[in-house]
């Protein structure tokens, strides 16, 4: 199967920015691009469509025009289009499963828009087995070039963030960018200390040296795999979301891991991913844990 990036497109400014980002990333990585629209028959006020066939033709024409625009900017890029029938979340999640990543448009400081309404965007992110990248309207090559770093959050043991670190290093290698790996830490409650943990902390010289050592251990295999990628190790006391956002000003892309939490009202993507998605001004990649 051809390796590819999939971009959702509905004609909105957000989806146009997402399509542009996906096309540039596909060129960098030497991948194909698939442009999709999740559709079911609903009359549009903006077009004279009174039947499913007319509306479906309009959707296909919209995708074809988007593909022509991309091909004109990137003549060598392999571009295909597809109309996804059926329930929106299931269609997009299934499409993502066949791709290296799914790229969608996001308004920011609120819910996803376009073909993703209300909780649908969160459901796609929570259910996808592949990385989902959210791109703001107005994200252009010039804005992308202003950032120099791929910022990635690391937490827990090395295996807990392996998927996010791999995505960050692969992206940095394709762009010639620096990886800034961020590990945030907070003071645990006194009752959380056990004799074993106290001994471990004492051997490492305290909490902050221990956190630095943990980040170094998590990065070691990726430094070895990508020796040409510059790395900045960033350890700071504070909440993970706040620390990540504090360094977002230099970021071309923010990468966060995701372990979906199932609740009685549906899937939740976690407070760190949720906060970064709503407040980071750069594109954000949400990468499911392996």
TrEMBL record:
Pfam assignment, any one: Usp
InterPro entries per the UniProt record, alphabetical: Rossmann-like_a/b/a_fold, Universal_stress_UspA, UspA
Residue ranges constituting the UspA domain according to the UniProt record: 1-136, 150-288
Gene3D superfamilies named among the record's database cross-references: HUPs
Family (UniProt): Belongs to the universal stress protein A family.
Protein name from the UniProt record: Universal stress protein
Source organism of the structure: Streptomyces luteolifulvus
């Amino acid at each position: 199967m051809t390796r590819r990036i999939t971009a959702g497109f509905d004609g909105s400014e957000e989806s146009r920015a997402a399509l542009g980002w996906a096309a540039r990333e596909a060129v960098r990585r030497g991948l194909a691009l698939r442009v999709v629209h999740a559709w079911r028959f609903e009359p549009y006020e903006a077009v004279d469509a009174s039947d499913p066939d007319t509306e479906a033709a309009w959707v296909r024409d919209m995708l074809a025009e988007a593909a022509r625009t991309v091909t004109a900017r990137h003549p060598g890029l392999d571009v295909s289009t597809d109309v996804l029938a059926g329930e929106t979340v299931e269609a997009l999640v299934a499409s993502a499963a066949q791709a290296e990543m799914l790229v969608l448009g996001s308004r920011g400081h609120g819910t996803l828009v376009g073909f993703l309404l209300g909780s649908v965007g969160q459901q796609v992110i929570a259910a996808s087995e592949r990385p989902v990248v959210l791109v703001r309207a107005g994200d252009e090559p010039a804005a992308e070039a202003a950032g120099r770093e791929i910022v990635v959050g690391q937490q827990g043991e090395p295996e807990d963030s392996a998927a996010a670190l791999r995505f960050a290093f692969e992206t940095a290698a394709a762009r010639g960018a620096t990886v800034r790996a961020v590990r945030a830490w907070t003071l645990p409650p006194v009752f959380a200390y056990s004799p074993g943990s106290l001994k471990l902390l004492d051997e490492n010289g305290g909490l902050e040296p221990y956190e630095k050592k943990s980040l170094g251990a998590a990065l070691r295999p990726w430094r070895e795999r990508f020796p040409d990628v510059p790395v900045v190790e960033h350890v700071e006391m504070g909440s993970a979301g706040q620390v990540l956002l504090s360094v977002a000003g230099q970021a071309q892309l923010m990468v966060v891991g995701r372990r979906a939490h199932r609740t009685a009202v549906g899937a939740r993507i976690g407070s760190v991913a949720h906060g970064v998605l709503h407040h980071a001004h750069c594109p954000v990649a949400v990468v499911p844990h392996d």
